[in-house]
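Record type: monomer structure entry
Structure origin: computed from sequence
Chain ID: A
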Amino acid sequence: MSIFSTGLSGLNAAQNALQSTSNNISNVYTPGYNREVTVLGESRAGGGVQVNDIQRQFNQYVAGQLNAATSKSSALEAYNQQVGQIDSLLADRDAGLAPLMQNFFSAMEDLASAPSDPAARQGVLGAADTLTAQFRSFDGYLQDMQEGINGQIGDEVTQINNATEQLADINREIALARARSGEAPNSLLNQRDRMVHELNERMDVRLNIQDGKTYNISLPNGQPLVAGTQHYRLEAMDSPSDPLRTVLGYRDSNGDLVALDEDTVTGGTLGGLMDFRAETLDKTQRQIGQLAVSLAEAFNEQHAKGVDLNGDSGGDLFEIDSTSLHRAGGSLKLAIDDLDKIAAAGVSGGSGNNENALAMQDLQKEKIVSGSATLSGAYGAMVSDVGNRTNIVQANLDAQQGLTDQLRAMQQSESGVNLDEEAANLIRYQQFYQANARVIDTGTTVLDTILGLRN
């Protein structure tokens, strides 16, 4: 190889190295970009240098660890945002159920002290009406959360389907690029890995790299989402057991929509929402419903044992639909609006005594909630349970975010762009270019000298 060819190969190598360095610098703030390195080698022609590869600095193992950690962090963050709302609702000392239940029993105590006093009777009806309104308000708030989660699940599914479709398209583009040139553009590889990362932010998925080239994506249960250039859509659908509940479904080989088990979806924002709904929201709604049913049934039973001011047997004090604990709190309301209909007296003591009012007041101390807890005790346990869960989720989130940050820093140390390092590379490769240019200049001088000797 002549001195000119050797110098020219050096110029070409320097230009490629400078191009890679410039590309790194220009993409320093591009999400998902992986630093490029120009790999040089001795020319096979017997002299000079050649560009063997423009390598993408990407560690698949670290990326997999980061994706898994990100999926868990996203799930905990979504869970934490939701559970904090319920914790604030239940623990509010002014708007919670605890002070209203206490007001109701205090009004019942006033009635026992003056069973015929219209003001005392009005106090009972007023306190009972306020209490039932708060039960309905709580149930309405929790039901709004259910509907909000339904909507968020639908939004997440739309984004997941968009991501899987794009991944299948990128697989196709990469395959075509390899067929044409034998290499895949680093930009497409970066884009594909970025899409996998974003998909893990939304839900936990499994990545299988076929033949070291093609990305296949599936759910933890093996249900495929991306297989080569094909993508499979998920659908947000009504639960077969509850039409008011949105779950995930997929189309089977016959084209039928089949619901996935809720525990199939883990990780990511979607998994966090579904975990919160199953573990906390559903449970809280049932507990509120159980409190409402226990209150209504216990007081209705005791009220029926008394006599009102007209001498008639007491009827129901509360109305409630107890067919479903899940929504019972929303149906609780006062059954009477006539002061004279309050059955404060006992059957044997005449319509003016306080025997039954005392008995209803004593229900405050009775374990009327599933036979194991008082009303205030059951409510306090529910508030404590949600508070503890909120603290645990927050602690887990802090720890998981710390791990995620460590893995992200590890990935950046390998794949990220360091501007100081790239600035140094610019100087190195510029000197490399200048040196090879001098080689060509020297070759020209030598050639001119030789030609001059002939003259």
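Annotation 1: The chain has a mean pLDDT of 91.
Annotation 2: Residues 66-403 form one domain.
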